Structure to design on (160 residues):
């Protein structure tokens, strides 16, 4: 498998995930995960295993009337050194939402991912959400990607 082939297949996985969020399709969304995956939404919201991942997703989605998740761009790095191909990637997203209480907002973030193959298909083995902004559409809430905030989170390579 080439890195380009892996990129296209993983891009489809990421798109399937986002489409399932928009259409509130838990069955389709759950199928994007490896059975022993880890989902880390930050702030202590880390779960392991498809059962707990699914439970967290259904609970979170109950708090939203509607959500539009758009995948903006991403990258993939393929690792074929093991018995099963693996990869890592980063995908930027924008999510516009209406919460169950009627409040609206926007999330600008990226996922740091790890992928594995299950029965020949790419699946998430880990997704770690890194929010950059969450708040009103007018962007008046604090951004989480300022140099100081990035350093607080221990992000390496911050030099500006």
């Amino acid at each position: 498998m080439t890195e380009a082939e892996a990129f296209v297949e993983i891009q489809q996985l990421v798109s399937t995930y986002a489409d399932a969020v928009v259409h509130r399709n838990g069955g389709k969304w759950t199928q994007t995960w490896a059975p022993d995956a880890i989902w880390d939404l930050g702030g202590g919201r880390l779960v392991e295993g498809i059962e707990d991942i699914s439970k967290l997703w259904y609970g979170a989605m109950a708090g939203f009337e509607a959500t539009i998740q758009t995948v903006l761009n991403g990258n993939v790095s393929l690792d074929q050194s093991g018995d099963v191909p693996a990869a890592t990637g980063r995908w930027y997203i924008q999510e516009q939402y209406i919460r169950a209480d009627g409040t609206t907002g926007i999330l600008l973030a990226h996922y740091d991912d790890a992928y594995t193959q299950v029965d020949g298909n790419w699946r998430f083995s880990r997704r770690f959400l890194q929010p950059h902004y969450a708040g009103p559409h007018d962007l008046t809430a604090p951004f989480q990607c300022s140099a100081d905030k990035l350093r607080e989170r221990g992000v390496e390579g911050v030099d500006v």
User: Anything to note?
Assistant: The beta strands are 33-40, 46-48, 64-79, 86-99, 104-118, 121-135. The mean pLDDT is 95. The CA atoms of residues 40 and 46 lie 4 Å apart. Residues 3-152 form a domain with the Nuclear Transport Factor 2; Chain: A, fold (CATH 3.10.450.50).
